[in-house]
Amino acid sequence: MSKPHPTRGRRVAATRLSLQDPSQYCGPIEPQVPLTLQERLLGGEMAKGLPGLDLAITIVSLTEVGSTYPSRVRLAARKAADAPSAKTAAALERALRRELDRDDLADYQAIEMSRVADLLICHQAAFGSAVANARMAAMAFNYTGRLLREGRAAPVWLALRSAMMFAEDASEEIEALRHVPEPRYPRLAMLNARVSNLSSELSIGTEAQELVEVDRAVLDGGVGADGTVDPEDVAFLDRLIWKTKPTAAPTLVVIDQHALDHLPGSASSGSSNASRGSTPRAEFQPLAGVALPLVHGIDVAAVRAVLDREYPWLSDLTGKLLGDLVGGRFARFQRTLLVGKPGSGKTRFLRRLTALCRIPSLVYSAAGVADSAFGGTSRQWSTGRACVPVQLIQRTRTANPCVIVDELEKAGTRRDNGSLIDTLTALMEPEGSSAFFDPYIETEVDLSAVQYLATANTTAGVAAPLLDRLRVVAVPDPRPQDLAAILATLLPEIRADRGQDEAWCPDLDPEEVAIVAEAWGKGGSIRPLRRIVETLLSGREALAPRH
């Protein structure tokens, strides 16, 4: 029995990632600008999902005032911009193809006209042209062959999927091409090697797709959610046993064993010639050379069930964040910025998410922060402190805690005393986080496993370097139908703040809930909802009989 190809595991992993997150090959799910032809052949979307808008942006260079493009092209482009359709897009493509044969075109004009002409096929297909869809299917199949020849396993599956989609949309009869007799067998023989490669890549894609389905089943509360397995799933699970071999619990050394030896004082007592108090060496020596545990093995199905019950309006967000935890060696959320109106429950949700996942977390308010203290301060100052992630690791004895940066758009922009933005930017880079220099203990620390989630009311005030490093997710407002779920968590909080138990502050009765619902109206911020509930409870207490 021959051994598997040594790179098969890597190819399976790459294809699996391309299926879970195809955006790295075909652009964002909701692109703001037109994508390239290659991205569209792999399944890329139109700008904001609107073919007309995408077309208008694509041809804007041809319609600008003072444009020097040929007059036929400018006229056809204006017609396509004014009335976008498969017909006007096809007319513009024909005009572009004809004019491309001219010898007096400038190089930049020829390049732009050729690029636009190719993209116009995509627009015609999006507007429903069967012929254009057939052309797109042919290009996608040809692109598949090119990817196979280049040995790029991951996007092959995406190219085939797109080709099949375009082929299905080419439903009308197309004029048959004139048949040219030629021997069949020599051509078929030439395709043998390519078909063999295709078979191999498809088997890899199938294997990766099976893993994705398992991930989705767990996330959706399927296989294993209640500890049971359907009989028909047994054979499928048996095939996946080799993928789930038990491994040792993951750990990470944050501070190397001898990294603190240069600091003054005793590692055991912390005494030094200059001070009788604790020293940085004594404070952090317990972490030096210690393999700290990484939180792992989270039951994402159970966590999802709780969050969907408590935060039903954030179901899509729950799926995204918990999806980050599936299949990893340890828990690691993708760096994410939640953007929503004040009171939409962003910070409350993140606190609850990390608590349910048993990931230690810290909420760090960025509002008004105008220095680099987050990244630590020199021990030469009397108020010197280690960076916030190291302090969090020290307190929790966990190598992958989560820092929740609240109100990120309100961070200060001055750099007189350093900048929170610059510090976060460095920590969100793999190279910067794995060897971050802490000025307090004067050594490099490995913070690569620390997780970052953030909130903001708008992206307008968030620095561009941070936006480039964060997945931005829009957070919707709570809806009127979410009132019962919100009250189920809001009332216990109010009781805790008042120091009362359920006997002294019982749940709202149906009439009180109706009053709250009417006052809250169409939903929105949780903060006024809390004030409404507190006002109702105060009125309840004022009307209570005195004995």
TrEMBL record:
Domain AAA+ ATPase residue range list: 332-477
Keyword Protease: yes
SUPFAM superfamilies (UniProt xref): P-loop containing nucleoside triphosphate hydrolases
Source species: Methylobacterium cerastii
GO MF, one annotated term: peptidase activity
Protein name as it appears in the record: Lon protease
Pfam family, one: AAA
Keyword Ribonucleoprotein: no
GO biological process, one term: proteolysis
Protein keywords: Hydrolase, Protease
